[in-house]
Specification:
Number of domains of chain A: 3
Distance between the termini of chain A: 41 Å
Radius of gyration of chain A: 23 Å
CATH superfamily of the largest domain in chain A: Periplasmic binding protein-like II
Shape of chain A: globular
Strand content of chain A: 15-25%
Oligomer: homodimer
Strand order of the largest sheet of chain A: 4-3-5-12-6
Largest sheet of chain A: 5 strands, mixed
Chain lengths: 296, 296
DNA sequence: AGGATCGGTGCATTCAATGCACCACTGGAG
DNA sequence: CTCCAGTGGTGCATTGAATGCACCGATCCT
């Protein structure tokens, strides 16, 4: 869309922090870009950039303008998607930011199921922790977010939520594998492997451990859930996961036992969108499917 | 705002039903406008106008585009208003579509009260019947609507509602003026003056009369509530109004008596906005004031 | 048949956007 | 301090996208 060129450039300048840099990236001269911005500020009626000695920075008016542009851009995408829909083309593109736990089983299954019925719809799956996922939504770089225990910003509109108890993941020959339910203190007494700080599971574990005057002291700390699942098969340590990230049948050679809910309260897996946005057709349908799948 | 010129022209063409007419109005040639539209359709990826023998008409894709433009325009106005606000200018413009009954007392009072605290805010008050008021909101030509018994379209978001009983308006020497409450059949037995079809009061009266196998047969039928209020002083007829359109004290020389609620159920006065819109600062504050005033 | 009105198109023109060269200013390194 | 690198801002010539003009073919109404 030709008419939002200026907005696109404004966004580029805001990102680069400098008119010259942004101009170079955009393939035009600094003077041209400078004048575009000056002209926009004239028409708009207010400065949108603070002029610093070493560059520029968006002021609060500029933040509002940028937010407006992003909303407008995403709405235009929605309109195009709806038009494509009524042309019978049945195309679309769904962008979703989700927690790592959904990568092995849940998301692949859901996307495959959807694409079986709508092969024209393409997907972008971004892996974001709970804080970054909400940023994605706010900047409208993603249409949906499916995250575990997010910090719930004001702009996050919850479409569905399900509780997810924290589970211990063990090799079948681990001493704790015999029990049906495991206490947190038993996990902490054994060597354990845990996600790094910032992840929902770790957050719940830290809170619970502190309540029992204990500490989570993992022998291995990692950002990869996949590493956790595989590592417990190599060394007799206790791993932690949530059920949605584990194969339901348990054919993967892992033993899964819930950690006592009275020790570690279940966290919430939330499906959400940017508040007030009208989602494109394909996205909206996919969200509906997710809600249904989560409900089962 | 320069960048939505094309959208503005598209709207003009849609309204005029002809590229040539719209071009003339806009002060450019038909060929230029034609090409602008063709270029937009190219970029957009779909036709937005049906080409007819005698002109053009928006197709459904075009309707979506126009709706997008209106939403975007109103959001830009909101952004500018917020920026003006944080510049300390405290300016703004409130556009409200309302029923005729609010013109004599309610709206003047409310606007004056608001402007006493915010002299920089200007107002546009459009008088629209209940059907047209919702059109105004949908096309974003008005920010708020305060209407009696609207038909409640899907895009109408109710901010507040209060019941309004239908009242008989009489000269003090009218035979019915002696009673505290008046039955509908008594009104219909006397000569009466009523609003034209399409107005909320008339709608309620028609429904109620039909239930009693009677008919509303006014000696004078008018679109002006003001005429009704004044006419009852000239001829001994029964007029109909809702309380919010009458002076509370009753110093206007009129006698007001409620029509029995078991005959004519009270209608609803609804304050609403376009669903999902973020209102400009000034408008939002004014809406809050209206809600409070209606609550009293 | 014929006039009126419509959308669409080829070609010359124009003016707004751009590139270039340059200025003034700032901050940090030598 | 000087000097340099990097920034935003400006006057002037240039260019190309948008426009106006003239014209075409189609359609509708008289």
């Amino acid at each position: 869309m030709r008419h939002m060129e200026t907005f696109r450039l404004i966004e580029a300048v805001a990102r680069a922090g400098s008119i010259r840099k942004a101009a170079e990236d955009a393939g035009l001269t600094a003077s041209a870009l400078n004048r575009r911005i000056a002209r926009f500020e004239d028409e708009f009626g207010a400065r949108i950039f603070e002029r610093l000695a070493r560059g520029v920075r968006l002021n609060s008016a500029g933040e509002l303008v940028l937010q407006h542009y992003r909303a407008q851009r995403s709405d235009m995408a929605r309109v195009q998607s709806q038009v494509a829909d009524l042309k019978g083309v049945r195309r679309g593109h769904v962008t979703i930011a989700c927690s790592q736990a959904l990568l092995p089983y849940f998301m692949p299954e859901q996307i495959a199921r959807y694409r079986r019925e709508h092969p024209g719809v393409t997907f972008a799956v971004k892996v974001r922790d709970r804080a970054r996922a909400e940023e994605e939504l706010a900047a409208m770089r993603s249409d949906l977010a499916l995250v575990f225990e997010p910090e719930l910003m004001v702009d996050f509109e919850v479409l569905h939520q399900i509780p997810q108890p924290v589970c211990a993941v063990l090799a079948p020959d681990h001493p704790l594998a015999a029990r049906d339910e495991i206490r947190l203190r038993d996990c902490l007494d054994h060597p354990h492997i845990a996600p790094a700080a910032g992840y929902g599971v770790r957050y719940l574990l830290d809170m619970a451990a502190r309540r029992g005057s204990r500490q989570v002291e993992p022998v291995v700390e990692t950002e990869s859930f996949e590493l956790i699942r595989h590592y417990v098969l190599h060394e007799g340590v206790v791993g932690f996961q949530i059920p949605i990230g584990l194969r339901p049948g348990g054919t993967s050679g892992l033993t899964v036992r819930p950690v006592a809910a009275r020790d570690v309260p279940p966290g919430l897996m939330l499906l959400g969108q940017m508040k007030g946005r009208v989602l494109p057709v394909a996205t909206s349908r996919f969200a509906t499917q997710l809600v249904q799948a989560l409900g089962e």
